[in-house]
Amino acid sequence: MPLLDGEQFLRAHLDANPDAHHAALHDPEYAASVHHLQTTLDRLGHALAAEGITDEDQARRIGARLATDLLGTDESNARMESRARLVRDLYDKGVVHMPVPVDLLGRPS
Predict the structure, then answer these.
(1) CA separation for the pair 11, 8 (Å, rounded)
(2) Cβ(102)–Cβ(96) under 8 Å?
(3) Contact yes or no for 45/39 (Cβ under 8 A)
(4) Are the C-beta atoms of 34 and 91 separated by less than 8 Å?
(5) Which pLDDT tens digit goes with each residue over 6-39?
(6) What DSSP character marks residue 109?
């Protein structure tokens, strides 16, 4: 029997992070990431059991950490979005200029 149940860990993570839960239901790319992580956690659980590792608490901590690291939390995702918005505002106000490579400018005809 595997030490990790991917569905159980992801359900707990998504229940604790409602925005991530919403994204898992409505954003195809995020949903694919959640599905991939569930598969990874399931495989990790089987691999740990096959190696004779029986520490369930350690396996749970590993599963929770992977879910948090790979999917983020609502708090960390909000911070990232806030930073991205601030950077976009700086570009929009002309405070920051992004150099455009010459080859992307095209040649005048």
Answers:
(1) 5
(2) no
(3) no
(4) no
(5) 888 888 888 998 888 988 888 888 899 899 999 9
(6) -
Cα 22 to Cα 15: distance, rounded to the nearest angstrom: 10
Q: Please give the pLDDT value at position 104.
A: 63
Q: What is the pLDDT of residues 28-73, one digit of tens each?
A: 888 998 999 999 988 888 888 888 888 888 888 888 888 888 887 7
- Nearest Cα to Cα of residue 15 among 67, 79, 82: 67
Alpha carbon 24 to its chain's center: 10
Which residue in 40, 20, 46 sits closest to 31, CA to CA? 20
Q: Which helix (H) or strand (E) holds 1?
A: none
Identify which of 41, 29, 48 has the alpha carbon closest to the alpha carbon of residue 67: 41
Q: What is the DSSP letter of 3?
A: S
Residue whose entry in the numeric block shows the structure tokens 């995702």: 77
Which residue type is seen at 94? G
